[in-house]
Design a protein that fits this description.
single chain, alpha+beta, Trna Endonuclease, Chain: A, domain 1, five-stranded mixed sheet, 2 helices, 29% helix, globular, UPF0102 protein ACKW6Q_15240, Restrct_endonuc-II-like, UPF0102_YraN-like, tRNA_endonuc-like_dom_sf
């Protein structure tokens, strides 16, 4: 496994821990539908929270959350719709991004961006 894949897995684990510590219930990780994947699907306050985890070793070129393109949003929304139908969920859905970046001392910093995008952004 490549180093960036290891870092991505570490970032997803950190994001899941962060969510659990903040009162979220993790429903599923790495949910796949067709070619799309949702990193984490959680629940809190009767909302379904769809979380895209973005990790970068540096923010020199772009912030992690800036890597969530319109095409990526479209695939996440499609997978989220499938999840909601498959598991017969009828709650409101919120789309969040958790970015993970090392600071100058190589400590990993987590930023949770709630309501980072809406399903309408996929159009």
């Amino acid at each position: 496994m490549a180093t960036h894949n290891d870092f991505g897995k570490i970032a997803e684990d950190l994001a899941a821990e962060f969510l659990l510590k903040n009162g979220y219930t993790i429903l599923v990780r790495n949910f796949r539908f067709q070619k799309a994947e949702i990193d984490i699907i959680a629940e809190k306050d009767n909302l379904i929270i769809v979380v895209e985890v973005k990790a970068r070793s540096t923010d020199t070129f772009m912030l992690p959350q800036e890597a969530v393109t319109k095409a990526k949003i479209k695939s996440i929304v499609s997978a989220a719709n499938h999840f909601m139908e498959e598991f017969n969920k009828n709650q409101e859905v919120r789309f969040d991004i958790i970015s993970v970046l090392p600071d100058e001392k190589n400590n990993l910093i987590i930023e949770h961006i709630e309501n980072a995008f809406e399903a309408l952004d996929a159009n």
